[in-house]
Amino acid sequence: MSFLSALRNLFIESSHESIPEDAVLVDVRSPGEVSRGGILGALNIPLAEIAKKSTHFLPEKEKPTVVFCASGMRSASARRTLISLGYIKVINGGGISSLAKRIGGRIN
Fold it and tell me: Which long-range contacts (CB under 8 A, 24 or more apart) does 38-43 make?
C-alpha cells in the first residue's frame, strides 16, 4: 500500500470495508436530521459531540464501530476523532442511504 493510500484510509475513507455483524452503528447527523429518518438501532451522537460523548456511549474501544452521516463527510471527521481517542476499529460507513443498502437495513 502506498503512503498516500494509507493516509486516505486513515483520514478520509473506509466506506468499502465490510461491516462486521457486531458493529455499533453511530449516526453523526444532527438530531433534526435523524428525526426525518435513521437506521434502526443506530446511536445518534452528533459530530459536534462525538469527542465528549463517545466514552459514555461507546465504552468498548475494541468493538467495531461504524460511523455514518448524510454523505460521508462528517463521518470521516468522526472516524478521525474516534481513532485519535484510541478506538481501534472505526469504519466510515459513508452516507446513510448507501450504508442502509450495504447492511440490508432500512431507514425508518
Answer: 38/96, 38/107, 38/108, 39/68, 39/96, 39/99, 39/100, 39/103, 39/105, 39/106, 39/107, 39/108, 40/105, 40/106, 40/108, 41/105, 42/68
Phi, psi of 8 (to 5 degrees): -60, -45
- Per-residue pLDDT of 78-106, as tens digits, reads 999 999 999 999 999 999 999 999 998 77
Q: Which of 69, 78, 82, 100 is catalytic?
A: 69
CATH of the domain at 70: 3.40.250.10
CA distance 33 to 74: 13
Question: Helices 73-84 & 50-57, crossing angle to 10 degrees?
Answer: 60
Domain total of the chain:
1
Is there a domain that residue 108 lies in?
A: no
The β-bridge partners of 44 are: 27
- pTM, entire model: 0.85
Is there a catalytic annotation at residue 29? Answer: no
